[in-house]
Every structure is written in structure tokens, then in C-alpha cells.
């Protein structure tokens, strides 16, 4: 339904056209409302023996919110230490101090879609609305594996758009399969964050950051001369190792006052 709602409009423009973005925003807003209604109708207040509120089921609560907006983002920035270091090496982070750039971004519908609309509505639908229904049936840990496949499959519709805009079939298939793979992996990480923190804010902020960074450009490393290249390679490896070491301690449910999802497994 979520993906199908994007195609109810007759549209001759590409996905980045302002008209397309505005129509699709309306579609996902309505589908998110429908999804939230389903959660309200088909979940029990006695969730795993706990009496819970409708909002806390969907990860919308104040307790632990500050931690949920900071720690998962920090954890993800550690994972992206290599790409972040690449950006720093190129001086790209100077743009963050440019007021004109921010004013442009906040009035640019493509930027708003990638950094605000898509992260919020995708996480709200695929995490906040889907997991309260999946977890009672499959458990938290199994849901970390199952839920991402819905998220990855939801991105396969972009294959149709690639073909419609003249992409070669083989190239479009390979790109779509690659996109399915990394969105599924991200979906698992996002699901894990939601269940461990009990906050939808955590995956939303991380999603926005990942959309900003994009998929790491490993090939760019080989265009940089030594010794900088060696330092940057160490950053890539160190980021992955530190992320693996910090993943569990920085997402302990107790930090976020989360007694709903993860302790039940």
C-alpha cells in the first residue's frame, strides 16, 4: 500500500520533479495515517503482559528521548568514520557553516524529501507501525531479520522508474538488486535501533544522516596520494571495528528507559 500510493497520480515527470515530490508526500502522509490506524485497531494495550499506551508502542514518548536522538546518531557517525574523514579531507564540512546553503536546503523539495520526509515517513511506517504487529508474532530478534525485507522490497519499485527513463535493462536490474541489498541491511540496523531504544526518533535521525552521507565511495580512496590514503583506510577499518564494539553498550534498553520490546526476548 505504501509503495502503491506513490503511483496513484498520473505523472509525466521524474521522481525529483517538485510536482512529483509534493504528490507523493500527500500519498505517504495518508498511508502513514492508515498504518497508524491499523496499529490502533489491531494491537492490545496489554502488550507482553505490560499495560502500554498507543504512542509508546510506536516509539513516541518523552522518557529517554534525548538519549535516543544523540547516541544512535553518534554510533552511526562512528561507523561512517571513513566517509566522514573523506569529506573532511575534501573540505566539504565547511558548507555546514554557510547560512545561505541551509536556506537553500530548507526551500529545496529534493533536499527536504531526502533528509526530512523520506526518513520520517519510511521509519514511521516500516518501524513504528510494522514492528508493534510483527514482534508479538515473531519476537524481537526474528523481527530484526524479517522487517528489513519489507523495507528492501519497497525500494524495488525504483526499477520501473529507471527503465522508464531510458536505463538499460541489465544495468537497471543490477542497480536495483544492489539497492535492495543495502536498504535491507540498513533496515535491519534501523529495526535494531527501534527495538533497543524504544524510540522511533532514533532510526529517523540515523536514516536522515545515512541519506546525507550516501553509500560509501570506496573507490575514491584510490585517488588520494599517500600518506593520506593510508590514514583514511585506517579510519574506514577503525570505524567499523569501533561500531561493532559500541553497538550493544550504546543501545542498552536501560539507557533509554525501554522496558517494552527487547527485554521480552
TrEMBL record:
As one GO molecular function, the record gives:
metalloendopeptidase activity
The membrane-spanning stretches of this chain are 25-42, 62-81, 133-159, 171-194, 230-247
EC numbers listed for it are 3.4.26.1
Gene Ontology cellular component list: endoplasmic reticulum membrane
Catalytic activity line of the entry: Hydrolyzes the peptide bond -P2-(S-farnesyl or geranylgeranyl)C-P1'-P2'-P3'-COOH where P1' and P2' are amino acids with aliphatic sidechains and P3' is any C-terminal residue
- Signal sequence, start to end: none
* Compartments in which it is found: Endoplasmic reticulum membrane
Give every CAAX prenyl protease 2/Lysostaphin resistance protein A-like domain span.
Answer: 109-213
Keyword Hydrolase listed: yes
Major site of localization recorded for this protein? endoplasmic reticulum
Q: This chain belongs to which protein, by name?
A: CAAX prenyl protease 2
What gene does the UniProt entry assign to this protein? Answer: Sras
